[in-house]
Amino acid sequence: MSGQRRLNAGITVQILLDVFNIRGIVHYGTAGSANDSLSCGDVSVPKFVAYTGSWEWTKFGSTSEPSRDLMFGEYNVPTEGTNLLSSVEFKTEEFYSVGKPMEEVFWLEVNAAWFRVAEQLKVQLERCVNKTYCLPEAPKVVFGLKASTADVFVDNAAYREFLFKEFEVSTVDEESAAVIMTAMSISVPVAVFRGVSDLAGGDANWSSTALSDLASTNALKVAVEFIAAIGK
């Protein structure tokens, strides 16, 4: 119920933390897959999440060599070359937490104890959208991958491949990093469950509202099992 994108998600978590005595945040939703080993209906339980929507856009002709960059000229067609858009350098985030100095972070780690509990889950996921439409293989729960968050809906195969190659990102969404960062600022544990609803531009044949519903159902199913486990 947080609404879409980082600002809405962060504000919603902050309201929860301000109004209620929160033991922890269990966040679930859908995501696009940037990893060919993940298919629609699978559920990813990431250990690390980065915000990949903070850039420094470099000047055309700049001689600087940023450590994390996307060079637009490399994606020219039919052959790579120079491009007036130049490149963007991915920036770290300023992370503020109670009783500690500001840190510059790129990867946010979910709560280790909660992640260990999640790893023990054995959940049978839904395979069929309806009586006549089922996935060719049973979906699976995958633990410990990396995820990225940005205020961008990724539907581009080249950018999908870039994120996986450069950062080993397996899923892309618009809220997870904000949820984790907001809760972590006062040391409230967080667990994230993301159902794969599409392949982020990798294959148009696997994009449909029905598959998005299935991904949501499976993510919720794993989240509910986690709540039962953590309650014990």
UniProtKB/TrEMBL annotation:
Cited CDD domains: MTAN (cd09008)
SUPFAM superfamilies listed in its UniProt record: Purine and uridine phosphorylases (SSF53167)
Domain (Nucleoside phosphorylase): residue spans on this chain: 8-228
Coiled coil: none
One biological process term in Gene Ontology: nucleoside metabolic process
A GO molecular-function descriptor: catalytic activity
Protein name stated in the entry: Bark storage protein A-like isoform X2
Protein source organism: Ananas comosus
Gene name per UniProt: LOC109727648
